[in-house]
Amino acid sequence: MKKRYHCEFKNCECKDFKKHCNNLCYNCKHSKIWHSSKSKPPTDSYLSFISPRFPARTPIYVKQHIKISIFMPEVPPLPESDDELTYCEAVEVLPV
User: Fold this and answer.
1) What is the pTM of this model?
2) Distance CA 88, CA 95 (A)
3) Does 87 map to a domain?
């Protein structure tokens, strides 16, 4: 006799068929034909967190306080007379 697995009747939560009287399941009282002949494949949510590898390290979370401030650039004061300004006479004179 073939083993039967989960019940497929609507939202039945029965995981395994256990024969009772009249070929009904002992747990959910549904017939044998409602129980699947194949086991359920693993779900994505179950498989997504299973890994055969060991983690390299356990992560350590550290709470850091960050000070937030607004940057206000300061403009240097302009010279009061044009004598203090020095202009370049030609491009060739500039240091390379």
Assistant:
1) 0.40
2) 11
3) no
Tell me which residue range forms the domain holding 9: 1-37
Task: Quote the number of domains for the chain.
Answer: 1
**90 in a structural domain:** no
> In which residue are the tokens 């356990």 written?
58
User: pLDDT (tens digit, 9 = 90+) per residue, 4-57?
Assistant: 878 888 888 888 888 887 888 888 988 887 887 888 776 666 666 667 777 777
Two structure tokens written together for 74: 């300061």
Whether residue 33 lies inside any domain: the answer is yes
Q: How far apart are the first and last CA of the chain?
A: 93
Instruction: Please check whether residue 48 is in contact with residue 61, taking contact to mean a CB–CB distance below 8 angstroms.
Output: no
